[in-house]
Amino acid sequence: MKSASKSASMIITMFTQQNQEMQLAQAKKEFDEMAKEIADRRKKLLFQLEKGKKKEVEKVDASKAEKFKTMVVFQLTKQDEHRIPLEELEQRFQTSAKTGLTREVADQKLVEHGKNQLSQKEKEPWYMKLIHELTSMFAWLLWAGAALCFLAYGLAPEDPSNLYLGIVIMVVNTLTGIITFFQNAKSEAIMDAFKNFIPPETLVIRDGQQQKFPASNLVPGDVVVIENGKRIPADIRILESNEMKVDNSSLTGESLLLLRSPECTNQTNPLETKNLAFFGTLCKEGNGKGIVIFTGDNTVIGQIAGLVESSGGDDTTLRRELNVFIKYIAVIAISIGVIFFVLGFIIGYPAITNLVFAIGIIVANVPEGLLATVTVALTLTAKKLAYKKVLVKNLEGVETLGSTQDLFSISRSCICSDKTGTLTQNKMTVENLWFNNKKYKGLNREKMGPKFNYEYDINEVGFRTLHETAILCSEATFDSALPQEQQIRIQNTIGLNQQQKDQKLKEAQEKWNQNFQKMSCQEKPTIGDASETALIKFFQPINDIIQTRQSRQVARDKENKMAKMPFNSTNKYAFIIVEYETADSHYCLLTKGAPERIWGLCDSAYSNGRVELKDEKWEQSFLSINEQFGRQGERVLGFAKFHLPKDQFPIGYQFNLDKMNFPFNKQVFVGLISLIDPPKDNVPYAVIKCKTAGIQVIMVTGDQPVTAAAIARQCNIITEKTVDEVMQEKGISFEEAFHQSNALVIHGDKLTKMAIDDEGLPEEDKGRQLQEWLSKPQLVFARTSPAQKLIIVAGCQRRGHIVAVTGDGVNDSPAIKKADIGIAMGITGSDVAKDAADMILLNDDFSSIVVGIEEGRKIFDNLKKSIAYCLTSNISELLPFLGFVVFRIPLPLTTVLILCIDIGTDIFPCTTYVFEDADIDIMTRRPRSQDEHLVSGKLLVYAYLQNGVLSTYCGYFQWFVTLYDFGFYPSDLLFIGVRETILPKVGDVYDPNDPWFGNSNLKRIYENGKCDFDFPSSEVEEIDWIYANHAKLDLRMAYIECKDGELKEVFEWAPCSVNLVSPYTKKPYCYSTEASNYAQTSFFYGIVVGQICNYQGLRSLKNAGTFQGFSNYYMFFGFWVEFMLTVALSYIEVFNTVFGTRDLLFIHYGVCALPFALIMLIWAEGRKWMIRASKSNTNYPSWWERCVVF
Q1: What's CA 206's distance to the chain center, in Å?
Q2: What is the reported pLDDT for 713?
Q3: Residue 612 main-chain phi, psi, to 5 deg
Q4: Confidence of residue 71 (pLDDT cuts 50, 70, 90)
Q5: How far is CA 174 from CA 330, 397, 816, 930, 1052, in A?
Q6: Catalytic residues, which ones?
Q7: Of 842, 836, 806, 804, which Cα lies nearest the Cα of 821?
Q8: Is 1045 left (phi over 0), alpha (psi -120 to 50) or beta?
Q9: pLDDT tens for residues 476-491?
Q10: Which residue intervals define the domain Cation-transporting P-type ATPase N-terminal in the entry (predicted)?
Q11: HSE-up (13 A, CA, CB side) for residue 225
Q12: What whole-number distance in Å separates Cα of residue 701 and Cα of residue 746?
């Protein structure tokens, strides 16, 4: 189940939900015209309603509006720290922007406000988590079974087997609970390692001195220095900004860098103003200084802690399925137990005997080993997924990804996936180059290798000019500093003093430096924006970027500062002036920026080293290539340069960047470089696998529709023309084009308009437009907000989908939490998203989701196989009890041997199903129906009525053969348990020629050898076939009847074929109840042999057994363990005593069960052949597929 704790993540989630509602409210303002249209439409609708209904609707709407207004006002007006004058802010916090707080005031505020950290609800104690694992519905069923065993022992203490059975069930139940507890605890430990909201130390100005302090000791009013690459330690108001840009992706999910400045740019919404930076976000560029305004729970992510309400998650699909199965088993077991309890009274058994029998039947129906099997299977699968970089936080979540549904309709399960970082590499990469009026594919030389045939020539003058211009205009560099996450982990290590931490930091830095040198350029971390990072990673393998930059010294301006201007959104360009000696120039102006802006600054262009004036041909070429790059969703950078004439700009010229005292609009165009965040290499194939598995992949992104559609095409999410493209190509309306294409790109504005349109409609009529969009198999949502992502998830669930949602930002957490399976990114994901998720992709790779889907489907299949395997032996355990009660034959199988099957010989082979290869159609089969359960009626019919009966034949045939070898004809065993007779004495010897057959008690009663009267009732009793009370008696002297005045033998005894002596009675097995103990062991082995063939038949649900092969070495290990257990039970004396087993001859070692075991295997293979042979060629499955496949 999903966590229900009031953690910091829950606080952030609740805040995000409210913030998203604010975003929707803001969006509504932008649709005034549409709102007016809706209002007119609503008036017409209300006019048609009765007055009473009209008033009621108006009252409800007014109430909702007031509630929404109150919430928005609370959020927007409560904080004013961002808009009040700086002097007032200093007075409020008793601080100074220059000297900061005094030590005394800071200490007082620390006592008043507490530590700068988010408070968390106290974690659930470990023992409560363990108790939770020990009290699941399945566990309760086993506890009840153990209790019944103890009750049976109390009623019949002469049979200790029930005591043993109860103890072992308790041990198994406890062990499985402990295994699950430790596996989930391990996942939680990995989760704790992710938490890195707060940096360990930060630069603070106090008493006018800059010093390092633990960030947890910050208080409101502290003046902090924000360094490049560091996390913001609290909510701060910006005092100084040196091109400081922050990455708010941990809070908003958007990876765009946002410029911070001291000016308040939004009076009403503190989240949108540029003069605030928020706790937990990252300073990616520049640096700055600010005043702390909120710390800990009073920060943006913690200020609504009091509004958080704990909410539990739904059970996983596997948990629901297991609960349904447990109910089935409980009903079946109790029903049969009650029926035979009543039947026993009718037959005439005593009440205590009846109760013991009923308990035995109930226990026989409970698969005691299945809980352990499920736990081990899930644990092994979770480990396999972890090896494949998928962390499962809850074992039962393993199966959920494989859940699909709706067998006959077109609706499918779906994955709502982010684009950036999940489908794509989250690394801007050079895609194309355009220089010399030609386009070149920008393949990376480090990735493709030196022998690859590249389209561009690194020695060509046009390429070298573009190379030099791009590197000199960019500032991004490779970052060899120890990653902050590692610094935080070391600084937060408990039990180390600061000196030890510094030593560990030094060692970690040295190790990091060694690894850094071995990294490829693509792997090395960088400092700088994404576009410049792409440039240096492309050009570094060609020539070292530091060497390129050092080859040209930056010119100085009139203030002796470097003559360069960074990029800003107003100018849309950046430039630098460098010392560049040529025949005509000392300085060179190099510019980069938006392609249209750079093209407009140029009056000529380079072509093969020559300068050509711009003409109509150049204009058309530029417009064409720029439009092409845009259609492909690529981000484009333009580059230009201009050698400043030496006569006008001599050495030492003082440049004025404000007045631009140099020619800026006469530059020479160098070329274009297009960038793209490309799909990960294995994503396109992974999407195809999802489609063949009946799982729809929906892209939900904040990018522009053109970019989103281009990436969706590369990822195989879209494979045809979209509705918009059909509409533009054919000049038709959106409604007409909608029915001519299966691919659709929806802008987020349409979702907002839909939300407005739905106002006032009944609940069942809302979202119909979204349902139409979701009917498209190829779907992209672009320019969506997190609130809209939540709407999309709800719409998919309304269609009956099992929805998986990926996300990385705090704002994604509501959608992740709402999804059936929430998936967070392990590398780029925020701590909150990871907390809300059920699974974490440790490598941020979408294809890992497909691995999870395949493993989920496989484990669902394998659990079916395991359950069918376990239930098969249940029938062969139950029918012996029924035969004993109804036909009064000797008990073929004791409850202790039932236990040996359920949690002994069955459990190891049952567990090895998890290692079986998936069926060949695992990712191409129809999605499973919503009505298809883990344990279906078809599975029960197969396990109980087909293989269960054949398995019973294996045991009974072996049992009858064994008893025949010891002198008992099968027909004589019927009702042998109710025959009353006069027992001989232990020392009596059977003599067929003696009138009394050697029975001295008969001789005492009938001295003359004639039975003139019936057996005296005081002398008559039944043979004890259950316990060893009569084990030393020769039954040929006991089963005597008085017939026609003569004493005669009741049975015609079979010859004693096996002359064995029991080690317990020191007498032969033949013609004694001791033969029953021997035969019970033989019955047990007959079931084991049947189960071996049953295992082979169940290794696949449809594939032929020969197709599966024998590559599952764990299967052989399971059989070897099973064989060793049977040997131990049979030939180790202490086990003979405890379990009532006997050492068998080879002929009784299940050999006689082989014919029926082989029939079981032949039937299973024939059944699968019929399923394959009768496969339907239409969408409607054949009878065999509908009624036989389980």
Answers
A1: 47
A2: 92
A3: -115, 140
A4: very low
A5: 20, 22, 33, 33, 51
A6: 418
A7: 804
A8: left
A9: 899 888 887 777 778 7
A10: 80-154
A11: 13
A12: 10
